[in-house]
Amino acid sequence: MTSGEDMRIVAVQMISGPEVAANLAAAADLVAQAAGAGAALVALPEYFALLSSDEQAKVAAREADGSGPMQDWLAETAARHGIWLVGGTIPLVADDAARVRNSVLVFDGSGRRVARYDKMHLFGFDNGAEHFDESRTIEAGSRVACVDTPFGRLGLSVCYDLRFPELYRAMRAVDLILVPSAFTATTGRAHWETLLRARAIENQCYVAAPAQGGVHAGGRRTWGHTMIVDPWGEVLACRDEGPGIVLAELDRAHLAAVRAQLPALAHRRLDPAS
Ligand SMILES: O=C(O)CCC(=O)C(=O)O
Predict the structure, then answer these.
(1) Over the stretch 22-53, which tens digit does the pLDDT of each residue have?
(2) In the structure, which protein residues have their CB atom closer than 6 angstroms to any atom of ligand 1?
(3) Which residue has its alpha carbon closest to ligand 1 atom 7?
(4) For residue range 145-195, what is the model confidence (pLDDT) as tens digits?
(5) Burial of 97 (0-12, 13-18, 19+ CB in 10 A)
(6) Could you tell me the distance, in angstroms and rounded to a whole number, from the CA of residue 196 to the centre of ligand 1?
(7) What ipTM was estimated for this complex?
(8) d(CA 223, CA 215)
(9) Ligand 1, atom 2: closest residue by C-alpha
(10) Which CATH architecture has domain 7-261?
(11) Which of 40, 51, 113, 248 is the most buried (most CB within 10 A)?
C-alpha cells in the first residue's frame, strides 16, 4: 500500500499486576494522556490487563468471543477518545480448557473490533536462575493478522514472536508492525533493541513495541524500553522504565523515501537456489 496519511501514535509502558481493575485504571490514565497528546493510535503492552499466570484462565472465562469486561473496556475507551486502540494482550478462552489464548484485539475510533491476533510463538527460557515455559498456560495461535488503518497496513505480533522473522514476511508488506511485549530483563538487555531495529530495517516499516517495564508484584522484572523505530532502523522514541507514554509521528513520505532509496523488499529472491 502506498496511500495513507501521516499519523501520531503512542506506545504505552506499564507495570501491570494481578488485579484487573487496577491495571485497567492505570491503562485508562495513560490512554487519556496519549489521546490528549494527539495520538490517533494507542498501543498497550502484553498482559496490560493482567500480569499473573495463575489468574489468566479465571479471567478469560469471563470473556465471550466479542464481549466481556476487558473487551468492553477496550471498545469503550477507543470510542470515548475516538482513537485506534491496540489492546495487547488479554487472555481469551482456548480450545484446551486448561490454557488460554494470549490475544491482541484492535478497535477503531468508533469502538468497533477490527482485528484479533493470538500469539503464535510461546516463550521458553531456562538459564538455571530464571525459567519460563508459556506452553504450560498458553495455547498458540496459528493465524497471521493484519488490518488496514488510516496510516497504512498494520501487522500484529506479540513479544517472543519478535524473534521469528518469517512471521513478519508472511504479513506481506506492512507499514507498521506492533509488538506488545513483556520481555524479561535478562533477554531484553541482550536482544530487545537489536531485534526491533532488525525487523524495522528488513521489512522497511515502522515498528512500535509497547512493553511492560519494571518490577512487578511477586518480583518479576521486565525490560521495558518501550520503543518506536522508523523504517531506516532509527529509534524515534524510547522509555527505559516505569509507566508512561512513548510518542512518535509516522511519516508516509519518509516510508516511501526509504523504500525508494534502498529497494531491498523488491530485491528479495523468492526462488532461492537449492
Ligand atoms: O524473547 C524473549 O526474550 C522474551 C519473550 C517473552 O518474555 C514473552 O514472549 O513473553
Answers:
(1) 999 999 999 999 999 999 999 999 999 999 87
(2) 123, 159-160, 163, 182-184, 187
(3) 183
(4) 999 999 999 999 999 999 999 999 999 899 999 999 999 999 999 999 999
(5) exposed
(6) 13
(7) 0.98
(8) 9
(9) 160
(10) 4-Layer Sandwich (3.60)
(11) 51
